[in-house]
Amino acid sequence: MLLTGTGRLAPIGLSPWAIQVRDGRIAWIGAPDEAPPDADRQSLGDALVTPGLVDSHTHPAFAGDRSDEAAARLEGAPSTEGGILRTVRATRAADDETLAALIAGRLRAALAAGTTTVECKSGYGLSLAEEVRHLRLIRSVAEGLPLRVVTTFLGAHAIPPGTDLPTYAAHVADDMIPAVAAEGLADFVDVFADAGFFDLGTTERIANAAADAGLGLRLHAEQLRRTGATELGIRLGAASVDHLEQLDDEGVAALAASTTVATLLPAPAIVLRDRLPPARALLDAGATVALASDANAGTYAGFGTMPLILGLGATLLGMTVTEALTAATAGGAMALRLPDIGRLQVGARADLVAWDADHEGAFALRLGAVHPIRTWVAGTQIAMETPL
């Protein structure tokens, strides 16, 4: 297949352009008049074409609604019976069919909005049986959808009632992680390493268990307080540290000197009226930056909104549009340790999106109102459908 266009191929800025796809990968890229012969030649006209977006931080396996909690928080009301544990109760009460339908709807929304790879966390189970159930459902749903799904075990999301931090962390490390790994249910382990959740000692214990089980590591870090979780993640070889609203210059320098990706989540920071992560400082220092949605139950429930997240990176976080687009594609791929996606280069997987726009600046100008008109995952065009 040879795709051609007279519009822009971003973020590399080629126009006009041609891409040959063979066996699900980009086989050639360049000017149309230099393209190799191909019987299946398709023109995309003047549409903007980019790699498929990569959402490298989401929490889709939950039931219940916390809109009332969000409204109360914005009115300054104290939190009562809310938060993660409220969602845990609702999710445990949902049967498999209900929870699978919710996960499927969220993943379809992501695909319909141009996301071709999405990371999906558990974390609203907080027991071995429930965490395993949620990861199984994510994997089962993903098998029926034409997008790439990476799964992350987040049993260390909060401390369930009736236990304490050391006891529960030991359960996560000694019982949960081996069971999840034995069944092949996760690619990564994540820990909410922040004030009031998991401290550096218990985070390291869980991270070591993940390494022993052959699973990658990611961390929620520096969202609520500056704790040093970033430096811990770097030392432990974390693929990504996420949030970073409270990161300081020392943390920026540490990330710039490492291979750990700084994954920035502007939407929940806005909803929580918090500090914004230091995107400009990280980029100027040379760190690898990803943009992701953090679509979840309680602080930002916008599944299928990566075009908006990209626009927020370019407008609120001080990034250029090209930097934001790169962070939402290649940056997210690096956060998932998938170097052959999110890029326009020979050998990369042919995940491509043609948008109803002329220029990538539309992501900043239209803030979420940029929509795919055609999408390919590994070289196969997918049927566009309305998300549930």
Report on the structure:
By secondary structure, the protein is an alpha/beta fold. It has two domains: 2-50 and 344-381, Urease, subunit C, domain 1; 53-335, TIM Barrel, CATH 3.20.20. It has 13 helices and 16 strands. The chain has helices at 67-74, 84-93, 96-112, 128-143, 165-182, 200-212, 229-235, 249-256, 266-271, 279-285, 306-315, 321-335, 362-366; strands at residues 2-5, 17-22, 25-30, 41-43, 48-51, 53-55, 115-121, 148-156, 188-193, 216-221, 240-243, 261-264, 289-291, 352-355, 372-377, 380-381. Strand 15 (372-377) and strand 16 (380-381) form a beta hairpin. The longest helix is centred in the middle third of the chain and has 18 residues, at 165-182. 54% of the residues are buried. The mean pLDDT is 96.
For the structure shown, list the relevant keywords:
16 strands; four-stranded mixed beta sheet; 20% strand; Urease, subunit C, domain 1; 388 residues; 2 domains; TIM Barrel; alpha/beta
In terms of DSSP E residues, the strand content is: 15-25%
Structure class: alpha/beta
How many helices does DSSP assign? 13
CATH superfamily of the largest domain: Metal-dependent hydrolases
Give a quick account of the main beta sheet: strands, pairing sense, barrel closure: 8 strands, parallel
User: What is the level 1 CATH name of the largest domain?
Assistant: Alpha Beta
What would you report as the Rg, rounded to the nearest angstrom? 20 Å
Strand order of the largest sheet: 6-7-8-9-10-11-12-13
